[in-house]
Design brief:
The protein is mainly alpha-helical. The protein contains five helices and no strands. 12% of the residues are buried.
Length: 115
């Protein structure tokens, strides 16, 4: 009877290159989802800060409209990325991020082209 030492176990991706690619794609999807979530949080915070400042100083309406549009675009990107990750229900995002109705209504809407 002969004795063989155990072979070192190889990483999972060395056995199937497709598994390595799937793993990398999943990592990138998760990373993109995190980046887009932080961008949505920044856009919503900028809108809230503007509203708080406006209550005190009477700031311009065009700037607020631009902030609502930016938040709507950030929300759209975030929702699309979530769906690409297989997360289909966006109601929890709207609730958890406390997305105002006007931002939700602007999601995916582009401003008219000029010139």
């Amino acid at each position: 009877m002969s004795f063989r030492p155990p072979k070192p176990s190889a990483p999972i991706w060395s056995k199937a290159p497709v598994s390595a690619l799937d793993y990398e794609l999943a990592q990138e999807k998760a990373s993109a989802l995190g980046r887009l979530g932080r961008a949505l949080e920044r856009a919503l915070a900028a809108l809230a800060a503007f509203d708080a400042e406006r209550a005190e100083a009477g700031a311009e309406e065009a700037r607020r409209d631009a902030l609502v549009a930016e938040a709507g675009t950030a929300l759209w990107y975030f929702i699309v990325q979530r769906e690409a990750c297989g997360l289909r229900d966006s109601r929890s995002v709207l609730r958890d991020y406390r997305v105002p109705a006007e931002v939700r209504d602007r999601m995916g809407a582009f401003p008219p082209r000029r010139g």
